[in-house]
Write a structure and sequence with these properties.
elongated, alpha/beta
């Protein structure tokens, strides 16, 4: 098999490299350290603002990876898309955290009973398990089966659903600070923002860092998304960090970290990307799939 045919696979199986952005990373490390040390307000909000493709998501993913490796802060990643999918938002974040993407309802209940160490005589604990399972994997209409928890639970009001979500998130934290990464939060509905404000009001004893990415072109003044973000930022006294395109030298370093190209190809990829990391990587994928890369 020609080596050139392997390039697309090599590009896709490893995470995108993170180059430079030292000032932004230092700020995020500092805030994360304060959350872990119990310093400052219990809830912090940081918004990474910039155009599409500039690398906001990769920076946030880096902090989540660092938190996971450190172990003193629990990270949950919620993604929001223009067209909502089943695993968007907090539901997707918790499902991914527990690795429940392809797990059936009964197995979810058994897993939560074991993870949360719920005794067989703990009726209240088993009710929370049934509620969390109903949120994560709801029963089909008309299905009256009772799962391993021994409790039939129905999320028939928004308030009850939010109580179950808050309880489940606390169990994920298990006494540690939480890092919520909300990717493209500007796509979220008003109910999502209402839920975040409710968490901010009612969960003051749970330390939470909310890290949000927002596309600048999608939050023009006067739009509903911009107003929702403004209210969230003002309520939580949030901080906005603008993420701009990289200079040519840094973009070249990103390209070299992705694939060992010669200088001419590296400079051409950097020129075409205009300092946008995502566009630089897309250019490498395009060349690789077209068979234009030789090793």
């Amino acid at each position: 098999e020609p080596l050139a045919d392997r390039a697309p696979g090599l590009l896709s199986i490893r995470p995108s490299p993170l180059v430079d952005r030292e000032e932004i990373r230092a700020r995020l490390r500092a805030v994360g350290g304060e959350m872990i040390a119990g310093k400052g307000p219990p809830h912090r909000l940081i918004i990474l603002l910039g155009p599409a493709g500039v690398g906001k998501t990769r920076i946030a993913e880096w902090l989540c990876e660092a938190a996971q490796e450190d172990g003193r802060m629990v990270s949950l990643t919620a993604r929001y898309r223009p067209v909502r999918t089943a695993l968007d938002g907090m539901l997707g974040a918790v499902t991914q955290y527990f690795n429940f993407e392809r797990i059936d309802r009964d197995t979810i209940e058994k897993s939560l009973i074991d993870r949360w160490k719920i005794d067989k005589n703990d009726r209240k604990g088993r009710s929370w398990v049934a509620g969390a399972a109903e949120w994560l994997r709801p029963m089909a209409p008309g299905d009256e089966r009772v799962g391993p928890s021994g409790v039939r639970f129905t999320l028939d009001t928004l308030e009850l659903r939010r109580l179950v979500i808050q309880y489940t998130i606390r169990r994920c934290a298990n006494g540690r600070p939480l890092l919520f990464f909300f990717d493209d939060l500007h796509h979220a509905a008003q109910t999502t923002f209402d839920g975040l404000l409710k968490i901010h009001r009612e969960e003051q004893d749970q330390r939470i860092l909310m890290l949000v990415t927002v596309r600048s072109e999608d939050v023009q003044l006067g739009t509903p998304a911009a107003e929702r973000l403004r209210q969230l930022r003002e309520t939580m006294d949030g901080e906005v960090i603008e993420v701009g395109p990289m200079d040519r030298e840094t973009t070249c370093a990103l390209v070299r970290a992705s694939l060992p190209l010669d200088d001419d190809a590296t400079l051409e990829a950097a020129r075409r990307s205009r300092g946008f990391p995502l566009f630089a990587l897309q250019q490498l994928h395009s060349w690789a799939h077209a068979g234009n890369l030789e090793f």
